[in-house]
Write a sequence for this structure.
């Protein structure tokens, strides 16, 4: 896979252009743009703001959002998925547009949520006949039986709202741009939602699912966090390198439940010959990321959630294949927001593991409900059943949750009033 998608990236970095890219409202996303100058300009602008040296100022926003997420989760543990989703939407709105939201029903949060539906549901290869019969896109939405056409109209409208509505409010802060530059700015900021929100949601749900089904993993995480962080504060980014086992849990979650099982399809620009096989130009290449992450020759017992596989002698083992080398893409198409996503995963997972007991759900009889790990078959895959019980580890842990959330809100209010 590396030989084809990394070493030959100049010829394997195109994207197959299907009608569903536009119909799902995803035309603005550089991840689906054809390889060329327009894509390069988008990627260059995105990289300027999300390269490792640039994301430091965003960490305070990520950390504050994580603290407020903990309190919401403490109060409404059954809303796990909704709260994780809103947490990352909140950060994207703040970083991308300097818009503050603290309510999942906020107008901008709704816009972002609606815009994410199209790419997730609409870009599964072969799901819609329009990919094989492009003329179907021209059937008007009002035509009897045009269910898909009405869905596509909804998705495209949602994508346009995401691109334009928050931008209109933030435009004065973004400085003057030519009309073409403005389009790139709109696209790039919106990509922060489409490219990261749902993928980080899936990975975080995988962590909760994994530790709830493996209490021994949570016990080890608690022991490490107690030793490194202590009972009176939450983990912060200064603890990142010291929390070896927490980092291993995140790596194992990315491996165990593959967020994009077949990646995002690549395509060849020119004819090629690979190990004796002729590959014509415009050939679609599907990287089977799921198979790589569940290869028994690389990961023993690949279906088992076992963070220890990434640790040797108390340190992360660099000889074990790192899932991050696969799940964020390949070659020129590797995700430019991966460092921002990794920071978001770390701070939210570390904080949640530190203060919560996360266990299997209980039935009405008080006995654990059997949860069978499974995965959805959409472009971005989610744990099929991530039900779990979430409650503070202790009264002291709940005090830490609420005090940090209060401080985060106060700091947010001060920053907002000081504008």
């Amino acid at each position: 896979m590396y030989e084809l998608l990394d070493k030959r990236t100049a010829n394997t970095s195109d994207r197959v252009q299907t009608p569903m890219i536009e119909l799902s409202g995803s035309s603005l996303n550089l991840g689906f743009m054809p390889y060329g100058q327009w894509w390069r300009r988008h990627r260059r602008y995105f990289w300027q703001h999300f390269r490792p040296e640039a994301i430091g100022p965003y960490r305070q926003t990520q950390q504050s959002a994580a603290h407020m997420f903990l309190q919401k989760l403490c109060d409404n543990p059954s809303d796990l998925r909704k709260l994780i989703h809103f947490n990352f939407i909140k950060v994207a709105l703040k970083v991308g547009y300097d818009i503050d939201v603290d309510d999942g029903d906020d107008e901008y949060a709704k816009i972002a949520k609606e815009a994410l539906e199209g790419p997730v549901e609409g870009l599964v290869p072969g799901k819609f006949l329009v990919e094989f019969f492009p003329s179907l896109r021209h059937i008007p939405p009002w035509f009897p039986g045009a269910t898909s056409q009405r869905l596509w109209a909804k998705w495209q409208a949602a994508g346009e709202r995401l691109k334009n509505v928050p931008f209109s409010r933030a435009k004065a802060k973004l400085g003057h741009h030519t009309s073409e530059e403005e389009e790139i700015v709109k696209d790039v900021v919106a990509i922060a939602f489409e490219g990261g929100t749902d993928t980080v949601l899936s990975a975080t749900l995988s962590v909760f699912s994994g530790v709830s089904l493996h209490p021994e993993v949570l016990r080890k995480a608690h022991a490490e966090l107690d030793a490194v962080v202590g009972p009176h504060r939450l983990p912060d980014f200064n603890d990142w390198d010291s929390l070896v086992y927490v980092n291993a849990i995140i790596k194992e979650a990315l491996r165990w439940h593959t967020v994009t099982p077949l990646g995002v399809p690549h395509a060849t620009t020119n004819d090629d010959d690979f190990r004796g096989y002729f590959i014509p130009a415009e050939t679609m290449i599907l990287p089977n990321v799921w198979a790589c992450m569940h290869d028994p020759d690389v990961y023993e017992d690949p279906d088992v959630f076992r963070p220890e596989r990434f640790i040797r002698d108390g340190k992360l083992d660099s000889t074990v294949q790192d899932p991050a080398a696969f799940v964020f893409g390949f070659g020129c198409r590797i995700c430019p927001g991966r460092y921002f996503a990794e920071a978001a995963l770390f701070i939210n997972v570390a904080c949640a593991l530190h203060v919560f007991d996360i266990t299997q759900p209980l039935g009405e009889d008080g006995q654990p409900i059997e949860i069978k790990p499974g995965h959805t078959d959409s472009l971005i895959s989610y744990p099929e059943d991530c039900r779990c019980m979430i409650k503070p580890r202790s009264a002291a842990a709940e005090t830490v949750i609420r005090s940090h959330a209060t401080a985060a809100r106060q700091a947010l209010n001060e920053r907002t009033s000081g504008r």
User: Anything to note?
Assistant: Residues 147-170 form the longest helix (24 residues). The mean pLDDT is 88. Residues 2-417 form a domain with the Cytochrome p450 fold (CATH 1.10.630.10).
